[in-house]
Amino acid sequence: xxxxxxxxxxxxxxxxxxxxxxxxxxxxxxxxxxxxxxxxxxxxxxxxxxxxxxxxxxxxxxxxxxxxxxxxxxxxxxxxxxxxxxxxxxxxxxxxxxxxxxxxxxxxxxxxxxxxxxxxxxxxxxxxxxxxxxxxxxxxxxxxxxxxxxxxxxxxxxxxxxxxxxxxxxxxxxxxxxxxxxxxxxxxxxxxxxxxxxxxxxxxxxxxxxxxxxxxxxxxxxxxxxxxxxxxxxxxxxxxxxxxxxxxxxxxxxxxxxxxxxxxxxxxxxxxxxxxxxxxxxxxxxxxxxxxxxxxxxxxxxxxxxxxxxxxxxxxxxxxxxxxxxxxxxxxxxxxxxxxxxxxxxxxxxxxxxxxxxxxxxxxxxxxxxxxxxxxxxxxxxxxxxxxxxxxxxxxxxxxx
Length: 401
What we know:
By secondary structure, the chain is mainly alpha-helical. 84% of the residues lie in helices and 0% in strands.
């Protein structure tokens, strides 16, 4: 009798801690996932052709996806409002883009190229001149205590900029291998991206339907809603960020040219590109403008003008452009965005900071959808019935009395 009871107790203990324990099951599943990841890492050479294939088609697909989210609303509007066939609108938009590209190549790029070459050629002199100006300023008795600190930070910044430029240039040439490979990759992108874009615009709705056919019927509706939410999130971010970046570049370029800032157009283009990084991009783009302004005589006139342009741009962007274009479509808390950008830039550099927000938006949508399904299936998150408010109950008692 005692043996039977001990076996029963042992069985109950084993079931309680291992078979019927959710925490143990979760830990075992996590361990299995880690073992699978470790096993795949040991045979990573098998996936090398796959990564090579993805790397080859990545740039054309990215260009096509960005253009798709910009052109698709126009194509849908023309088809819905004026009954224009999608093919005609797509061809007209592609021709318009081709004209804009040709105009940019023959008009804007030479100006930008000449300013970049001049800036790179004169950068050491600009840096030394700005450093001398700030050194003379720090010799003021009130600021003498900061002179040594400033010199240390100036040396660190100069070394950091030089090392970053060298690493970027070396990495760039190591990636492209040679000028021939670079030209061929650009040529392939320019040829294949419009073709991919054409079929995405023409058969975009069929892609969703074909994916839904693969999904089991039970989950087809949820998968369709998930794809729609992901599509809306990416579309809102791409259209909003590119529109805001364009107008930021225009405002800075016009403002710098108006005040006579050297290299105004290239600084405006740089601000437009870096504006793709929320919160930090515009301030990063302001640094070279301030350095150039410091060494522009008479000091500090140009520096004040640059700060005025920056203040005007920030006012217009925050009060007019961003609310009209972006609104709160991403539904992200500023603290979450800042922490995400810091972590993504540490992992993937500039590219990581640019793609962090849309990747986070997609992951957030998937997790929210999965949690919603889990909460409905498990029944663990049913809403409690609201208890009657004390004030309402007191009012009812007063009326009854």
